[in-house]
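Field notebook, page 206. I keep forgetting to write these up properly, so this time I am using the form the group agreed on. The chain and the ligand, zinc ion, are recorded exactly as supplied. Prediction of the bound pose follows.
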Amino acid sequence: MSTDLTPDAVLDRLLSGNRRYVDGAGLHRHQDPARRAELAGEQHPFGMVFGCADSRVPAEVVFDQGLGDLFVIRNAGHIVDPSVLGSIEFGVDVLGIPLTLVLGHTSCGAVGATITAIDTHSTPSGYLRDVVERISPAVFEARRDPSAGYDDVVIENVRQTVTAIREKSTAVNRAITEGRTAIVGALYNLAEGTVTPVHAEGRVTL
Ligand SMILES: [Zn+2]
């Protein structure tokens, strides 16, 4: 089942919703009992968001969407692992979603923890170590530019998440190559509420 939208149309719908949210003009559609009942048997979300788990960046809120609109995956620092890739493949190949938006944000705590771990030569214990290890390559890449700051690392982490999804998932790469889907990486500004695209894989216009 496909939403029959192009990746450009999905991106436009998401960014339009974000502008409403920023302006305090949200429509808050699709959040009523009628919509809930309509969707009980099936879902046809038009877009997919893979974002950071940060409590200040809830996908449906910042894009002014409701029930059944978005297929959402979130974890700390939007790190790519097998469960994430399986979820994205479900969204692309089973639900037919034309666009995945990878959403990082300013002052991301997972990125900050990784920078601290690297700078203090300390490794967190438990599974937090896994988060830090997966974000570390973005810190080293961003710091090829000596002037790179915190949010430059955040943007590099978004870019690396976008490329990792395509590189690791044969199914997603095939869908992108065939023009059935695209991935856009974007930065959410915690203070302003704005979403700014920074990177794309596939046929989509930023
Ligand atoms: Zn974060």
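OBSERVATIONS:
- The chain has a mean pLDDT of 97.
- The chain is about 45% helix and 15% strand.
FOLLOW-UP: compare against the apo run.
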